[in-house]
């Protein structure tokens, strides 16, 4: 059986590297995801995937590469996608808003479905904006 780094270890390292060395973080994330799919760990995939590594992988995509944080009742975003990841879309619910976030290297788009929620403060790369229910914002990404 070939010895290799655990999938959770690769994901933990990817999480740490996600803001400073996106290329290395992306390689480690892909390594962790491929480990279960390719069953490179000597036949243990038939026993089930490493759920912790899979959940952490989603966290890296949704929080680390998007810079998603909640501070002072506002949704903060500071997206920095790795080069091979050209588009990332995720949905979330926050303060009564049903929100779709779409990130590319060029833009960040935030769309709120119509609800009874009050306008929401969204801060993208340090710039605060107000997102009304049923509204959308599209922000150009800073130069890479």
UniProtKB/TrEMBL annotation:
Q: Which residues form the Glycoside hydrolase family 65 C-terminal domain?
A: 68-129
Residue ranges annotated for the Glycoside hydrolase family 65 central catalytic domain, each copy included: 5-58
InterPro entries attached to this UniProt entry = 6-hairpin_glycosidase_sf, 6hp_glycosidase-like_sf, Glyco_hydro_65_C, Glyco_hydro_65_M
Q: Which Gene3D superfamilies match?
A: 1.50.10.10, Maltose phosphorylase, domain 3
Any Pfam family hit: Glyco_hydro_65C
Q: Does the keyword Signal apply?
A: no
Enumerate the UniProt keywords alphabetically. Glycosidase, Hydrolase
The protein's superkingdom reads Bacteria
Q: What is this protein called?
A: Glycosyl hydrolase family 65 protein
